[in-house]
């Protein structure tokens, strides 16, 4: 399977030719037992009526005539008419190893027959096996895992951890960031369309200038750690990014004018901004930002919801590309290949603060989610999907660069992969 959403932004589902992929589909069906794409559900008109009457009006599908998807096979999706599409979006960068992957399906099916749910007051082996395997993927002292159900839950818990551990309250994120839509994480997010006019949303959360080399005040063709740069002219030289210095100065001004001196709780940052448009920062920006944060008493929280699990190709975690080890890492989406699963990973010392009171998550770390998460980690390794993301991402990125240079309508091409030979 090609991991198309790794390292590039590809917000699309493309209709594909059935005959061109018949051999691959036949192989998959022999493994998974999938034999038919026939749709037997309510009609398209009935689903529109049910959505309008019974589903929250805030859940708005894309497109004038939204697709009615009923089935997935690895990188393919099928609508109610049986039309086949190549999925370049992966359920908002969530389906990390393929729709209904045979190994993940088998792990879930086996666990369903054994144990669905227990609670934290009892032990079950899956949560311990999975936590150990997940922790083994992280560097340094990031060894304590807290399992939740989504990225918003993960970032909400990270806020609590940071404030309890530092005994400070103020938090910094970047403008254009997305860290969730819950009552607390909405404040971390810095995009107006995600805000509701409710009191207390910001809650001592500050938004620093976004260091975007393409649309920001500073930046140009020597700023990003990518084989594809912006076409903007700048005064930077190869290996020395002046935009990086300017954006760090802006971050320092937040500490100087907007925060209690030396009293920061945390800074949250995506390794590459996802919802904000696959925005890469100038080289060394996050590394220097993490140093500033720690100098001011805070923890650095890396939001790996969209950049984790080999998605950037050159590293397993996006923060590794910035040469930093965070104090807290949050993750979701691709961690469960579409199954509700998220995690917060931190150090034993920081994790200890949660013992000050009772804190547990009813469904976090349930046997089904852990079985799925464990299988996903295996598939990423066994099928060498990180390398595949690197190879395919590099090829596509350079191809898109050629299109950008040819068509004025394409302003920028973004992605974190290696130079393509």
Automatic annotation (TrEMBL):
Its cofactor is pyridoxal 5'-phosphate. The keyword Ribonucleoprotein does not apply. GO terms for biological process: glyoxylate catabolic process; L-alanine catabolic process, by transamination. Its main location: mitochondrion. CDD domains: OAT_like. GO terms for cellular component: mitochondrion. GO terms for molecular function: (R)-3-amino-2-methylpropionate-pyruvate transaminase activity; alanine-glyoxylate transaminase activity; beta-alanine:pyruvate transaminase activity; pyridoxal phosphate binding. PROSITE patterns: AA_TRANSFER_CLASS_3 (PS00600). PANTHER family: ALANINE--GLYOXYLATE AMINOTRANSFERASE 2, MITOCHONDRIAL (PTHR45688:SF3), PTHR45688. Belongs to the class-III pyridoxal-phosphate-dependent aminotransferase family. This is Alanine--glyoxylate aminotransferase 2, mitochondrial. It comes from Chironomus riparius. The lineage of its organism: Eukaryota, Metazoa, Ecdysozoa, Arthropoda, Hexapoda.
């Amino acid at each position: 399977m090609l991991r198309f959403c790794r390292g590039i932004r590809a917000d699309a589902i493309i209709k594909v030719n059935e005959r061109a992929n018949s051999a691959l589909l036949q192989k998959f069906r022999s493994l998974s037992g999938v034999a038919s794409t026939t749709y037997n559900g309510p009609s398209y008109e009935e689903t529109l009526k049910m959505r309008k009457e019974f589903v929250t009006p805030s859940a708005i599908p894309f497109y004038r005539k939204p697709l009615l998807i009923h089935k997935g096979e690895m990188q393919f999706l099928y609508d109610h008419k049986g039309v086949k599409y190549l999925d370049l979006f992966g359920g908002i960068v969530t389906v990390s190893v393929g729709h209904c992957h045979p190994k993940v399906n088998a792990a879930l099916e086996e666990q369903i027959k054994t144990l669905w749910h227990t609670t934290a007051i009892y032990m079950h082996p899956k949560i311990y096996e999975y936590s150990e395997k997940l922790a083994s993927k992280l560097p340094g002292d990031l060894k304590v895992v807290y399992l939740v159900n989504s990225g918003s839950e993960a970032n909400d818990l990270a806020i609590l951890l940071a404030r309890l551990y530092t005994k400070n309250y103020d938090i910094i994120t970047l403008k254009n960031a997305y860290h969730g839509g819950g009552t607390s994480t909405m404040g971390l997010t810095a995009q107006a369309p995600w805000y509701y006019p409710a009191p207390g949303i910001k809650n001592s959360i500050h938004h620093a200038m976004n260091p975007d080399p393409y649309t920001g005040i500073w930046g140009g063709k020597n700023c990003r750690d990518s084989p594809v740069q912006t076409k903007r002219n700048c005064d930077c030289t190869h290996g020395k990014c002046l935009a990086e210095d300017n954006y760090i100065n802006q971050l320092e001004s937040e500490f100087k004018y907007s925060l209690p001196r030396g009293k920061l709780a945390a800074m949250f940052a995506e390794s590459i901004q996802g919802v904000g448009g696959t925005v890469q920062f100038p080289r060394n920006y996050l590394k220097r930002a993490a140093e500033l944060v720690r100098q001011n008493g805070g923890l650095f929280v890396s939001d790996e919801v969209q950049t984790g699990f080999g998605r950037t190709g050159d590293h397993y975690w996006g923060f590794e590309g910035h040469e930093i080890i965070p104090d807290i890492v949050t993750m979701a989406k691709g961690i469960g290949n579409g199954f509700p699963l998220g995690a917060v990973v931190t150090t034993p010392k920081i994790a200890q603060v949660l013992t000050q009171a009772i804190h547990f998550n009813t469904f976090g770390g349930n046997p089904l989610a852990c079985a799925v998460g464990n299988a996903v980690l295996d598939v990423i390794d066994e099928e060498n999907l990180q390398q595949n993301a690197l190879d395919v991402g590099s090829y596509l990125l350079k191809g898109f660069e050629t299109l950008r240079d040819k068509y004025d309508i394409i302003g920028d091409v973004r992605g974190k992969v290696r130079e393509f030979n």
